[in-house]
Amino acid sequence: MSAEPMKYNMVLTRVFDTSVEQVWKAWSESGQVMRWWGPNGFTAPVARMDFREGGTSLVCMRAPKEFGGLDLYNTWTYQKIVPMLQIEFIQHFVDQDGNKIAPTEVNLPPEIPFEVRHVITFKALSDKKTELTVSEYGYPSEQIVEISRTGMNECLDKMAALF
Fold first, then answer.
1. Of 36, 13, 12, which Cα lies nearest the Cα of 146?
2. 3-state secondary structure the chain
């Protein structure tokens, strides 16, 4: 009987100098997501939001030319939405039509999981301060966690600039 392989989670907390409503909109409105999704140098040309429990949003991050200009598509399939408090979704790598693909099909490392559960929590610290926590579950190694942490930190830097 073999043991289940160890799984690692990525948890990142950030405080923004704005209301919980503004941070919520950054995650739920197409025009907002397009302004921050993707690490530094990446753009988000697509954010088709179907923001409801059971809905699936299609988001795209476009790599800069020096990284090949590749479009990386993901879906976010919402499991639970508690307004102004929590968003839970499963992220998959997909093609431009939303069909699930293996991360290796877009030249990502083979240990990147096919799907990653995300829980985003929002906590109003005051009228003008919001604590956001991004939790991602089920990575196979600390190395993959750090790749995800680096990318999400850069995304949240871009989000902070919106406020």
1. 12
2. CCCCCCCEEEEEEEEECCCHHHHHHHHHCHHHHHHHCCCCCCEEEEEECCCCCCCEEEEEEECCHHHCCCEEEEEEEEEEEECCCEEEEEEEEECCCCCECCHHHHCCCCCCCCEEEEEEEEEEEECCEEEEEEEEEEECCHHHHHHHHHHHHHHHHHHHHHC
> pTM of the full predicted structure?
0.93
CATH classification number, 8-162, choose in 3.40.50.670, 3.30.530.20, 2.60.40.420, 3.40.50.300 = 3.30.530.20
- Per residue in 67-88, pLDDT tens? 888 999 999 999 999 999 999 9
Residue closest to 119 by CA, chosen among 86, 149, 146: 86
